[in-house]
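Hi support team,

I submitted a single chain yesterday and got back a structure, but I'm not sure I'm reading the C-alpha cell output correctly. Could someone confirm the output below corresponds to the sequence I sent? I've pasted both exactly as they appear in my results page.

Thanks,
R.
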Amino acid sequence: MVDFLTDRKAILAAGFKTQEIEIPAWGGTVLVRELTADEVEQIGFGMADEEGKVDPSKARGRMPWIVARCVINEKEERIFVDGDAKRLAQKGGDAVVKIATAVLELSGLVAKEEIPN
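Hi R., thanks for writing in. Yes, this is the structure output for that exact sequence:
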C-alpha cells in the first residue's frame, strides 16, 4: 500500500534541497538551493530534451541568473538580487559554471555525469 502525501500544510511548508559548494576562487563555500518550479519555467523548456533534462551547454547564457537566484544563506534567503546576475557574468567562469551546474543537478535537470568539470 502506498502512503500518499495528503497534508497540504506540510507539503507547502517543505523546504528546498540544498548543497554546500566549495569555491576557492571566491575564498570559501557557498550554500545553494534547488530551483523553484517557477524558476525552471523562467529558464525555459527550450533547453530541455524530451525527458526534461537540460543540456548544460544550452544553460550557459542563464548561468549567472541561476547563481543570483540560488545562492542562499543559512536561513534559505537569497544573498544576491536579480540585478547582480550581470555582475556575476563578469566573474570567473569556473565558479559560476560550477555553482549553476550544481544547482541544475540538485534540481534534477541534469545528471551528475553531464556536469562539465
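A quick pointer for reading it: The longest strand covers residues 18-23. Let us know if anything else looks off.

Best,
Support desk
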